[in-house]
Amino acid sequence: MRVIVNCQSKTIAWDGHEYPCRIGRGGFINRMQGQEGDEKTPLGDYFFRFGFYRADRLARPPSDLPFWPMEPNDGWCDDSAHAAYNRFVRLPFEGSHERLWREDGAYDIVLVMNHNDSPPTPGAGSAVFIHIAQPDDRQTLGCVALTPDVMIKLLKKIGPRTEISIR
Q: How many domains does the chain have?
């Protein structure tokens, strides 16, 4: 199965069904031209690696994708000068990072793709996830965001190495 994100129409589709999604508030960019902090969704072909979820708020997501319960000290390194760039880290962490444990619900479910990770190129973008959309309909900082109902539908269809094409 292939999941397709159309950045122009801000939709996500699979199995003949299409749903609205949110993308980076800076728009989108070829993944080879993306830079850390540009707020653009990187175009390209990826696959899902694994996910995180807030076990204090949700049961394990209904998916064949590997999932780990999130903890309050979980983070993701966005410091392009650090050896852990674009990797999961435990907090406290000395480099710049994003906290995964958020109160706003956006990261209650996080799907990790293979964007810039084998190995990471410093400055080419980090923490590009598929996650829950904010209720106020705002765009993301480069991720793809889905409403909770669309996320649940997607989770039931994906597994390790399911392809996702961001166009």
A: 1
